[in-house]
Amino acid sequence: MAKFIYILKRLGAMILTLIVIFVMSFVLIKLLPVEKSIGQGNAARIEEARREALGYNKPIMEQLWIYTKNILTKWDWGTSWKIDYMADVGDVITSRLPPTMLINVYSLLFSVPVGILLGIFAAIKKNKWQDQLISVMIMLFISVPSYVYAFLVQYILGFKAGWFPLVTSSLYDAGNSWFSWTMFHSMVLPVLSLSFGDIAGLARFTRAELTEQLSSDYMLLARTKGLTRSQATVRHALKNAMVPILPGIISMFVGVIGGSIIIEQIFGVPGIGALFLKSINLKDYDVFMASSMFYTVIGLAANILIDLSYGFLDPRIRMGER
Amino acid sequence: MDIRNISKEKLQFVEGELQLHDQKFETKPIGFLKDAWLRFKKNKGSIVAAIIILIIILFAVFGPVFSSYAVSDCDANYALCRPDLGLDLPFWNGDKEMRLNDNYLALLYGIGYGAEDPDGSGNVAWQQAVDSEYACIVNTKDSLMESGTHYTYCDVDTVMRVGFSYQTITMDEYNAIRDWENTSGIRVIYPMIDYDSEFCMDSDDANCWYKSMGKVPLTKDGNRATLEYLQANGYADNYKRDAEGNVVYYVNKDKTMISVRVLYYNYYRYLHEGSRPTHIFGTDGQGYDIFIRLASGARISLLLAFGVSIINLTIGAFYGAIEGYYGGVTDMIMERITDILADVPFIIVATLFQQHFVQTGKVSAFTGLLFAFVLTGWIGTAYRVRTQFYRFKNQEYVLAARTLGASDMRIMWKHIFPNSLGTIITSSVLVIPSVIFSESMLSFLGIVNFQSKDMTSIGTLLSNGQKYLSTDPHVIFFPAMVISLLMISFNLFGNGLRDAFNPSLRGTEE
Prior knowledge:
The structure holds two protein chains of two kinds. By secondary structure, chain A is mainly α. Chain A is 75% helix and 1% strand. The model of chain A has no long low-confidence stretch (mean pLDDT 84). Chain B is built from 16 helices and nine strands. Chain B has helices spanning 32-42, 44-66, 102-115, 126-130, 171-184, 227-233, 264-271, 290-326, 328-342, 346-358, 365-392, 396-403, 408-416, 421-445, 458-466, 474-500; strands at residues 95-101, 137-146, 149-157, 164-170, 189-190, 212-213, 216-217, 250-252, 257-263. In chain B, helix 8 runs antiparallel to helix 9 (328-342), helix 14 (421-445) runs parallel beside helix 15 (458-466) and helix 15 packs antiparallel against helix 16. Chain B is elongated and about 130 Å long. The chains are: A mainly alpha, B alpha+beta. Chains A and B meet through helix 1, helix 5, helix 6, helix 10 and helix 11 of A and helix 10, helix 14 and helix 16 of B.
C-alpha cells in the first residue's frame, strides 16, 4: 500500500511539473512574433480559418485554454505551418520517430552487452594491465564529447576507408522500409557514435559495482562453501551488482525515443532531433511546442522510472516507508 | 649486577624538580587545504590535467598577443590554407596532397613560371620555375591513368597556390606599391592579361596568364601544348601589350580606379609590412585564421564556464544553506521549487532564451546563454550544500557555538560552510566541463549563434569545419582537439580534486 501511494505521489508531482513547464513554454512561445500566412488564394483562406480555430487572434490565456482542450479531447497538438505545410503536428512528430528510435535501439542492443561485459572483465582483472587499459579508455570516451568521435568515425570509417555512407540514407533510397539492408548499413556510423559513450558509462558503473561486490563478505562465504570463483562471481556478485545497473538501462530505453540531437544533425538522420532544430530555425512554433513537450515528458518519465525500478529491483529499498 | 641490592643513592627522579608542560608541536600543522594539496600532488594524472588546463587558458588569454592576426581578420584569398608551423618540418608545413590532371598541373606550374618573369620576356628555364620561391608545387609523386586522363599526385603549398589575383586600386596606391617594390626588391605587380583575346580561359582567373583554350594550355602557334612541350619551350604568354610590344601593368577601370594584377603573396607582404602569411593552425573556409579564432572561441567557452560556475556556486550555496540549516517547512517549499525547475529541459530553456532575448537584440548571445545555464544550473550545487548542512548542523561544535550565542548567520558561514567547502569546490569544478560541452553543442547545432566577425565559439568552429571534413580535415581537427583536451583534463582535474578533498581517503593509497 505504501508503495502504491508513493507511486501515486510521484506521478502527481510529475504531472504538476509537466503542467508548470507546459504553461511556461506555451506562454513564452506565444509571446514570440507570429509569422504571417504563407499560403495563397484558397490555401490562405484555409490557413486563416485554421488559425482562427486555434484562437491565434485571441488573448494568450484563451489560446492556452483552446490548445489544452484540443489536446485533451482530440489529441490535437496544433498545425505545422512550415515543416509539413498544414499537417497535424501529432502526425509530423510520429513520422519522425522511427529513425530516431531505430538508431537508438540498435545502439542500445550493441552497447549494453558490450559495456557490461567490459565492466565485468575489468572488475575481474582488477589492477592488472587489462583493467588499467579499460579504465583509461573509459576515461577517454566519457570525457571526449560524442560529436568528436562522431567526426572521427565519419572521417575514418566513412571517408577514408569508405566502408559506410557518410549520412543516413533517406527512406526513399532504402526502398521505403526502415528495416532494409541499405538503411541499416547507413545507420552503422551514427549507431557507433552513440554507443561509445554508453559503453564507457556502463563499463565504468559495472566495474565499480562489481569490484565492491567481489570484495564483500558473502563472496568469501560462497567460496568457503566450495563454489568456484566463477560460480561465486556469476551467481552471487553479478546478481547483486546488477541491482543498481538495471534502472539505468531501463531509463536508457526511455531515452531511446528522445535520441541525440547532435548525432542526428551530424549524420543527417531525419529524426525527432532534426525536427526540433528545424522547428526552431523555421519558427514553426506549434511543432516546437509539441517537440519540447515530447522531450520534457521523456525526461520526467526516465527520472521516475529510475526511482521506481530501484524500489522494485532492490528488496532492501522500501518505497514510501520511513 | 644484583638488582635487589641497588643502593638508594643511585635511585633518583630523572626529571628532578622540573615541571612538565605540553610541548609545542615541532612539525608544521597540516590544515585542510594543505592536506588536500598533499593528496592532490600524489595524483599524477590530475597534475598533468592541471598543466594542460593551464596551457589552454594561457593559449586563450595570450594567443591573440602572439598571433599576427586579429579575430576579425579574414582573407578570402587564403581560405582553407593548411596548418603551417613555419619550421620546415616534413609535416605540418602548409602542404596539401592533391590529385591533379595535366591542365591543372600546368596552371599551378604556371604560377611559379609567371612569377619568375615579371616583365613578360619569356626567358625562364623550366627548372627556374620549379625552384622558384613562389612555386606552389612542392614535389610530385606517383602518377596514374584513370578513364583516359593522366593524373599526378602532388604536394601543393596552399599559400602559394593562390598565385596571382586582380586588385582594384587608385593610382596613388599603384605608385606606393612601385616605391615599395624598389626599396624592398620584392615584385608585387605583374603584367596584365589580355582578357579580350580569344586565348583567355577565364577573365576572373589571374593565374591563367598563358594562352589557353578551354582549360588546355596552347603553344605560340595555337596548338595544344602538352606538359612536356611546356617543359621544353615554356609557356606562351597572353599578356596585354601596347603598340611597342611592351607589357602593360594596369588597366583603367573608371576615372579613379585602376585594375592591376598582383602576385598575391607579395601583395600580402606589401600590405603587412613585409611579414608573410603564417597560419599555424591553417585557415577556415572563409579565410579566418584558425589559431586566433580558436583562442577566441576557447576564451568564450572558458569565460562562460567560469562565470556559470561562480554564479551557480553563489546562488546554490545560499539556497542550499538556507534549506539545509532551517529544514522543516522552509526546506519542503524550497525543495518543491527546485524539483520543478530541475525538470525543465535545458535545451528548451536555452532555445527560448535565445529566441526571446538574443534574437530580439535585448542581450548578447553570451549573456543569454549565461542566463540559461544559471536558471537551472545552481540546483545541483544547492542540493549538495543542503546535504552538507543537514550533515553538520546537529554536530556538537554547532551546538557549542549556539550556546555561546552565535547568530544563525555566523553559524552557517563561519562554522558549517567551511566544512562543506571541499564538496562545493569539487562540484563547481566539475560543472565547468559540462558547461563547455553544452555550450559547444548548442552553438554547433546553431541554437546559439556565436557566428560573427569578432566572436566565435568552439562549437561554431566545429560546425563550420564539418563541411570540410572530407577535403580539409584540419579545419575541424584543431577545435575538436582543444575541446577534447579541455573535457578530459577538466574531468581528470575534478576527479583529483574530489579525491583530494575527501579526508576519508587519507593514507589509502600507500
